[in-house]
Every structure is written in C-alpha cells, then in structure tokens.
C-alpha cells in the first residue's frame, strides 16, 4: 500500500498523481485558516531538503465544505491529516470529520517542527481525538522524541489505531555568502535521503513496542527503500520528497517493490513485514490460476 | 504526470552563463515563460528553468552555475541523461500589440524563445558586467546596458512590457508599467503545486508561484519605486 506523506502532494493540482496512490493523505488541516510561514520556505541540503511551510491550509470549515467534496470525486481513499495547538483543537477537528463519509482515516499530526507545539503530550492529543471520532486514527510521531517507542506505546494506550513514522527532523541551512539562515523562519523540517536510516530505526523500535499498523516514510525513493521499512515493521509506505522530483514515483516504487518481494521469494512485500526482527517471511501462496 | 528522460545534446558557454541543450524527444516546448523542472544528477531536488531557445528537435536552457544544482547541470556533457518535467506554470500572454522585452541578468533566459514566438520584438537588456552582457548575443539587435546604468531607464512608454529579471527590477517595472507581464522566480521543490514552497505575495496573499505564475500581471504584485 503506497500513500503520499502529508504536505507532499496537492491532489487537486495533480489528480493523476493522487490516483496512482492507494490512499491520498491531505496537507494538514487546522481549525482556523493559516497563511503559513513567510518565504523562503525550502532549501536543499547535501542529502535532503528543508521545508518550513507552516501548515498553510484553508481551515477545517473551508476544507469540509469546499475541498473534501472535490477530493472525494478522485476515487481514492482520503486520509485527512489534522493538526492543532491544543487537545481541544484535535477534538474539534476529529468531531468535524467523524460524520464525513468520504474520510477513510484521520492522521494526527502531533509533530510538525514548523509551528508552535501544543502544551499537552502527544498521548493526551490522541485521547482527545479518540473521544471525538470512531474513524481510524493514525498518529504521526517525530523521530526527535527522546524515546519514540515510548511515545508510540503512549499513543497506542490512548487509542490510536496505527502510527505514521516519521515526521521531519528540525534542521537549518545557511546562505553561503551571508552566513544567515536560508529559511524565513530560520529552521525547517529535514526530509529526503538523510532521513532514511532515522525512519528505519523509528519504525523498527515502534513495531517492536506496539505491533500496530505503521505507515513508514522518510527518504523512500526506490522499492528497495520501501522493502527495508516493511522489513523493519511498516505495513504501508508513504512517499514524500521523492514526489517533488518524480511525480511518477508511486507506480515506479510499487513495481520495484513487487520485484524486490519476488527476489526474496514471497508473493507480496507485506509478507516480509517484521523480518528485520528475526521473524521468518510469510510464505503465502499465490492464488492458484484457474485453467 | 511524470518526468521524461532527456539526452544532453550540447553544453555551451554564453559569457559566464551556460546554455544546456537537450534532445526534445516528446517534450512540448510550451508557451514562453513556462518552465521545466530539470533534475541535476546527485541532487535531491530538481531546478526550475524557463525555456530559452527551442531549435528543431531541441530545448535549450540558460543557466548560471551558482549553486550545487546549477553546477551539476552545467557539468553535464553530450550524451548524458537527465529527468525533465514540463512545461509547467503559466507563460506570457502573446496577444500584445507593441511588445518590448525587458531582461536583467540571468532573467534574459525566457526572452529569446519569447522573441521567436512573437515573430521578433525589440528588447532591452541589463547586465552587471561586460562579461555577463555577452549573453545578449542570444537576442540579436537588443539594446544593452551595464551597471550602474539600469535597464528600466531604457523602457520607453507606449509598449507592452514583458519582463524577467531580479526582483527589484520587476518591482520597479510594476510601479511604472502597471500593464506589464512579469516573470518571477522563487525556490521551488516540485513545480506542480505539491510542496507550497514557492509562495510569493500575489494579490495580497501568499500564493504558489508555480500555480499562479511564474508570469504574473504587474497589478498582482506589490510595486516599488526605485531611484533613477
């Protein structure tokens, strides 16, 4: 199952790319409209990129009234990423989406490095969300938590159905001549290849700690990268930064992943879930062909 | 939507700049002022480049090798391959009566193709040095100035101004020529509306340049008065 990482695709601007995914994850929606951070918002680094978008979005009212109906016409399951500045915000956002048939799942962005964090701990935000909706909840965690596995266990205890791992890491780039920060907000979230081993470690630790379904993401560019996250414990893969260079990446990575699975002697990639922990691959048989 | 694999035909110096010519393949050259995302080898992000020249079978992009991405593009050689996505964004409106092309520095990039599509048009170009001004060879017949003289001084009233260049130049043109069409640039990660990285203030709000532009009517942006 291949998704996009939240904030890395506008399904309405590129519907054909969205349709090439197994589910589309929206850019994070907040209670009120947000214009986002002042430019400069992006900078390339040696092994990735920094972004400091700042959750630019139309707010939950305009999202539900205007965007969601248009997203629902795409024919792809819609996951809505939500973010706020207090537990009440998460409760309000989830309550608004609870009755929306077109919403397949809600991803709780409790780890954006580009805005002020709520005072509550992540598990308190999950508790507030859980009480407000019966929708499937995924909680997106930061790999910069001192103990991401403990954060995952707390989210599991608070009622999350799955985890999204990982969000970006805070980083900075300086202008070569002025030595001033490139980004308008000085720091931004690091994504791309540099994040890959970080994501692998976080998925590995959280799978071991919780066994929950995990959307693994962080620097995935090829089927091999996706396979490694699955081996570490991911049950689905999200593509982020690679989409900027290659909007054809979902179909390409899916095909590469199928070849990787075949090379490892399994029918499909999910059969290799958790293999990094010493589990044996699941030897599912391909459905018998009818004569 | 997916990038095309393009083969490099030639990489030619133009003064201090580089003209990267790639085989056109099935790529559409698009409207002047539209842009393509070129993926430099070994870099995470592609780079937005407007089309400079469109000879038969080729697309040519004018680069200034100033950072790791543009340096990697300039280091390509004939036969090398790179991913190209485009054309993207909104180009110049070509239905104008008395066009005058105005370019500053590397901002002259889209003007040769624009002049070609207009069937010829007068042009005024400004550069920071005589060496940079060698790039004026891409627009034969253009009037050229070198700093400290400003190209905006050469704009005579009564023309439809189509301009590309540094931000202060564009804001000065917006102040004096509210009917002008201005090609802007901003750092971009994707070029197709996905990343929200390229926002600029357009009609009073931060909007994506790759979706709304990169060519914008002067009235959509904040104008600024400049000396001279």
CATH class of one domain in chain B, anyone? Mainly Beta
Highest-level CATH class of chain A: Alpha Beta
**Chain-averaged pLDDT of chain B:** 96
Low-confidence stretches of chain A: none
CATH superfamily of one domain in chain B: Translation factors
Describe the largest sheet of chain B: 6 strands, antiparallel
Rounded to an integer in angstroms, the radius of gyration calculated over CA atoms of chain B is 17 Å
The portion of residues assigned to helices of chain A is 25-40%
**First-residue to last-residue Cα separation of chain A:** 29 Å
The major beta sheet of chain A can be summarized as: 8 strands, parallel
Poorly predicted sequence stretches spanning 5 or more consecutive residues of chain B? none
Q: What is the number of beta strands of chain A?
A: 12
- From the 3D structure, determine the CATH topology of chain A: TIM Barrel
Gyration radius of chain A, to the nearest Å?
Answer: 19 Å
- Strand line-up in the sheet with most strands of chain A: 1-12-11-8-7-6-5-2
């Amino acid at each position: 199952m291949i998704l996009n990482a939240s904030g890395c695709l506008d399904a309405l601007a590129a519907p054909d790319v969205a349709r090439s995914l197994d589910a589309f994850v929206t850019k994070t929606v907040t209670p009120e409209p947000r214009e986002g951070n002042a430019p400069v918002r992006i900078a390339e680094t040696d092994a990735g990129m920094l972004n400091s978008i700042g959750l630019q979005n139309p707010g939950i009212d305009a999202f539900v009234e205007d965007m969601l109906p248009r997203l629902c016409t795409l024919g792809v399951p819609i996951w809505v990423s939500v973010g706020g500045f207090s537990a009440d915000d998460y409760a309000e956002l989830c309550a608004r989406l609870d009755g929306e048939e077109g919403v397949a799942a809600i991803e709780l962005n409790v780890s954006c490095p580009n805005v002020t964090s709520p005072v509550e701990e992540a598990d308190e935000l999950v508790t507030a969300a859980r009480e407000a909706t019966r929708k499937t909840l995924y909680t997106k965690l930061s790999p910069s938590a001192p103990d991401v596995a403990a954060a995952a266990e707390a989210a599991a205890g608070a009622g999350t159905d799955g985890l999204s791992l990982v969000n970006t890491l805070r980083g900075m780039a300086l202008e070569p001549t002025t030595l001033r920060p490139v980004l308008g907000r000085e720091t931004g979230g690091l994504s791309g290849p540099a994040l890959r081993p970080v994501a692998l470690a976080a998925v590995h630790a959280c799978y071991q700690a919780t066994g929950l379904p995990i959307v693994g993401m962080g620097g995935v560019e090829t089927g091999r990268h996706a396979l490694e996250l699955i081996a570490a414990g991911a049950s689905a893969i999200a593509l982020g930064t690679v989409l900027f260079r290659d909007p054809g990446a979902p179909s390409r990575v899916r095909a590469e992943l199928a070849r990787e699975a075949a090379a490892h002697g399994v029918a499909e990639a999910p059969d290799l879930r958790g293999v990094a922990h010493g589990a044996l691959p699941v030897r599912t048989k391909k459905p018998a062909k009818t004569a | 939507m997916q990038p095309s694999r393009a083969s490099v035909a030639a990489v030619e110096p133009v003064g201090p700049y580089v003209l990267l010519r790639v085989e056109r393949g099935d790529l559409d050259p698009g409207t002047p002022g539209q842009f393509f995302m070129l993926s430099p080898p070994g870099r995470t992000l592609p780079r937005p480049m407007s089309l400079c020249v469109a000879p038969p079978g080729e697309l040519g992009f004018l680069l200034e090798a100033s950072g790791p991405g543009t340096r990697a593009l300039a280091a390509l050689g004939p036969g090398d391959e790179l991913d190209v996505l485009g054309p993207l964004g909104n180009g110049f409106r070509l239905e104008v009566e008395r066009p005058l092309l105005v370019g500053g520095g590397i901002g002259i990039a889209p003007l040769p193709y624009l002049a070609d599509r207009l069937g010829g048009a007068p042009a005024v170009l400004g550069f920071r040095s005589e060496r940079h001004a060698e790039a004026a060879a891409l627009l034969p017949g253009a009037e050229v100035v070198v700093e400290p003289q400003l190209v905006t001084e050469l704009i005579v009233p009564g023309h439809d101004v189509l301009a590309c260049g540094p931000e202060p130049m564009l804001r000065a043109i917006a102040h004096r020529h509210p009917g002008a069409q201005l090609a802007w640039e901003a750092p971009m990660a994707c070029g197709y509306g996905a990343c929200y990285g390229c926002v600029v203030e357009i009609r009073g709000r931060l909007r994506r340049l790759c979706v709304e532009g990169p060519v914008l009517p002067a009235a959509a942006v904040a104008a600024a008065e400049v000396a001279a």
